[in-house]
Amino acid sequence: MIRLGNCNVSLDRKEKGSDMDFISHAHSDHMSAAKSSRAVLASDETAELIDAAYGIEVSRHEGIGFELLDSGHMLGAKQLYIRDMGWGTSMVYSGDFQMQSSYACPRIRTRHADIAIVDSTYPYPEVVFEPHEAVREDIERRVDWALSRGIVLFTAFRTGKAQELIAIMNGIGIVPIVSRHISEANRVYREHGVMLDYASAYEGDTTDFERLARHNFVGIADTRDMRRLAARLASIHGRKVTTAIASGLTKEFRFDYDMQFPLSSHADFRQTVQYIERVNPEMVMTYGKEKELMALNLAGFGIEAKPFTDIENANLLNIVALNR
Ligand SMILES: [Zn+2]
Question: How many whole angstroms from 321 Cα to the centroid of ligand 1?
Answer without folding.
Answer: 32
